[in-house]
Amino acid sequence: MNGLPLFLVARPRLLDSIGRLLVNTAFVLALSGLLAMTIKSLSSTVLGMAKVGPKTLVIADLYPSLPTWWIPESAAGLALIVVLFGLGAWMNSTARMLKRTYAL
Hints:
Number of strands: 0
Number of helices: 4
Helix content: over 70%
Order of helices and strands: HHHH
């Protein structure tokens, strides 16, 4: 574990790529969570007006045949998105600083 930071410092392009991957993953998760919340709101509104079905829904109830475990629906999912985005942004800025400092 002690060699991992040195490995990444020696390879700022890899650090930048991992950072971009984490930022893009956070972005995709945030968009999927936003889309899921919109779908849940619309479907619960329609079901509420029709007086049919439960008032509160989860995405797994709406799409039982699709794997929806990765879609963030709670505060824990939002916290994961914030951590992924923050870590990715920090890795990007560190990689750019290393590239400027050492001209790699």
